[in-house]
Amino acid sequence: MNCRCAQNLLSAYVDGELAGVEMLRLREHLGVCPACREEVEALRAMKRLLSRSPQVEPPAGFEDRLAAIVLTSDATRHRPGTPIWRLALTTSLAAATIVFVLLQVMRPSPASNGARTAPADVAFDVQSDQSYMATSDPFGGQAPVMPVSQK
Amino acid sequence: MRAFGVAAALLAAATGWGQTSARDLMLRSLQKNGQVRCVLIQTYVVTDGRTGPVRLKLEMDGEGRSRRTVLQPIRMEGNVWIDDGRRWGALSPDQKRLLIQPSPSRSRLDPKLRMALIDKNYTLSLVGPSTIAGRKTTTILAQPKDEDLAARRFFIDPENGLILQSEVGDLKGKMDKTIETHLVSFPKRLDPSIFQIPEGDDGLEVVKTDWPKRLRDPSKATPLVGFAPRLKPDLPSGFIITEVHLVGNEDAAFLAVRLTDGLALVTVYQWDTDKKLTNLPSRRGHGVDGEGVCYYAVGDVSSDMRRRLAEAFLRLGPPAKARIGEGFAFTVPTPEPPAKVGGRRGNRR
Questions:
Q1: What is the per-residue pLDDT across B31-48, written as a single tens digit (0 to 9) for each?
Q2: With contacts defined as CB-CB under 8 Å, which chain A residues touch B280?
Q3: Which structural domain range is residue A13 located in?
Q4: Which residue(s) pair with B321 in the sheet?
Q5: How close does chain A come to B1, measured CA to CA in Å?
Q6: CATH 3.40.50.1000 given to domain B2-185
């Protein structure tokens, strides 16, 4: 199994939805691939955050306003069979989830915010320089990768 | 049908038609770099042993501006690189940090020079049509004249010169994808605001620097890097030095010597081991120490080739170290004026 296949299965793996040969192959890959292991940890951390999130009540009249918008939108006209209440509920839940995830993801961690203050961090500077140079090459032998300071 | 294909290949080889066409397409692709308005979803395979594949959304306005947004993996999601043609911004939402540097398009190699190097070091041939992300492509095989270099294959959209897939050969001759395109679109217009670097956003730590700096006379870097750069190595496999940059910052500067054989790009970083530099790179590239200077090669070539390129500098012998106090007389050369992009950029912002 390569990283590309593994990336598609990681979410299911974290949710315990993989079984049999697929899970064994993924576990084997995780045993040798630090990048995918790191990705599994990031997914687990996000799921933990989501599970701890408090229930948020929408403001009064939110559902009515949303339903009114949905009723007048083109998307609804094309799908006359979809019950409005279901569409409204699904949309509001999805919106709430996206907003929550964005807030969590964009919140700076105390360890990383403005961390790079020391001047002599060669690994950081090399990685930063490689990302910088990669974007000017049409043959694209290298992808830009955001460096992370060790400081 | 097969006999016809063989006959066509023989005819192409005999007349040189395949060679000329492949060369023309390659040159066109180099010349059109950044001049096509398009949106691409691409996967890049990063070979640093820890990053894995990175999926990006690449938006280009055809006038030299571009925006790259990471879609996957999740731990890098939302990282954005914007090149507005004059400056380059790297935004990390997780670190709430924005780094602004001069646009790297200033360091882009002249397409004709690059093509001349490709001619010298590779044999190009057309190996047939293909379809990538719904677009018909022409495939160019670049076979190295030196067996220590890797073969490369490029899937190019002949209508606009876009490279939609890139592959590199491993030691067993198997081709591995380095770029894969999943979606391509050619919008009539892209919102110009997506190419604006968000330096005014609240809560962002903005770091502005005019580094890396191109050195016209590398000997002037001696006081800053701590040693006299020696830059006439006997480089293997047709590599040449294209530019020398100062990287890091005033307090901890080191050299970045850019090399290419036409297709592969390699940087040999060089730093004074007597300086108290920290967090030295360990996983990527190849480093060799030589009497007070470390030579560290990074690039899209094999680890053996990186070692050989680093050692080519080592063989020049120990460089002279800078004298104490020299640093005070150092002045960094003025950067080149910004490249002209699109003709209207100056009035946009």
A1: 988 889 999 999 988 665
A2: 122-123
A3: 1-48
A4: B227
A5: 33
A6: no
